[in-house]
């Protein structure tokens, strides 16, 4: 019997409860209503939060002119697409159930159109982490990676990897995407000649283990080097303190990233039967997986003074524009907003070179 595999995305429609431990139909329905309400409410918040972050990055000068701004914007655009489009597309069919009719090729083309955004998000975050690592380790040569061509290549690369991974289930080579008769969502299953275990290992390695491993190593090195510099230098420059500030943001967000991804993988790998018998547990893990892009802006805003300054500056300017328009109409945010940060090209001291990259995490 083919057991469906977890899709490399927020839904993870892997094992839907099908045992005597299932709740009654009324309890089942109430839990689904609470779950879909929580998922959609979380991602409505996330859509607004990511839109504000995108506005801050494009309007607040210290952030807009940072060397990694294009990579940060790229990651936030993917998160915005995830919260506004991908999460509803993946979760609403689960709420509607397997009896609700879907378009014929809804599941077949979902990897290429929907799942690709998750793989792209993982590798875009990985590229940004490596970019940040190189800014920390080789600050005096880092300018080579801040030009338009290198940044363009770093933005395209995650999508090349994402499409390469997700073209196989779309053309049904080795793996295909089908609708789960239990959950109603779409899930991966192996085709003839492959085993589900092989496919699960391949998808998990390419989609999760490799990029998160690289991000973890990068963020650890960044944090260790920043702490060593903080202890070693008697004069603590503004750039060093700012690097510590961003390193804290990197670690907190990376931990949150892993916390949303790995519970489902661990449950499937080591507690498959228990997971299959706990409807509430599956809904909790599904909500957790769908909340990364929505809640991640909170970590950026709460742990990074740069983003706090940018949000305050943008909101102040918005309120001023509203008052200036008389009737409260908002005409937009000026192209640039001044800030107190020194992260502007051409305005670096010797120590400030190390802070030329700002990370999403």
SS elements, strand count: 2
* Low-pLDDT sequence parts: 1-21, 333-361
Largest sheet: 2 strands, antiparallel
Q: Helix amount, in percent?
A: 55-70%
Shape: globular
> Hey, roughly how much beta strand do the residues contain?
under 5%
Which class do the helix and strand fractions yield?
mainly alpha
What would you report as the Rg, rounded to the nearest angstrom?
22 Å
> What's the helix count?
11
Average per-residue pLDDT, rounded, comes to 77
Q: Strand sequence of the main sheet, in spatial order?
A: 1-2
Q: What is the CA–CA distance across the termini?
A: 41 Å
The secondary-structure element order is HHHHHEEHHHHHH
Describe this structure in words.
The structure is a single chain. This protein is mainly α. It is built from 11 helices and 2 strands, in the order αααααββαααααα. Strands 1-2 form a two-stranded antiparallel ribbon. Strand 1 (about 175-180) and strand 2 (about 185-190) form a beta hairpin. Helix 10 (about 290-305) crosses helix 11.
Quick rundown:
This protein is an all-alpha fold and 361 residues long. The protein has 11 helices and 2 strands. It has helices at 25-59, 61-64, 69-96, 110-137, 148-170, 196-232, 238-270, 272-277, 279-290, 292-303, 305-324; strands spanning 175-179, 186-190.
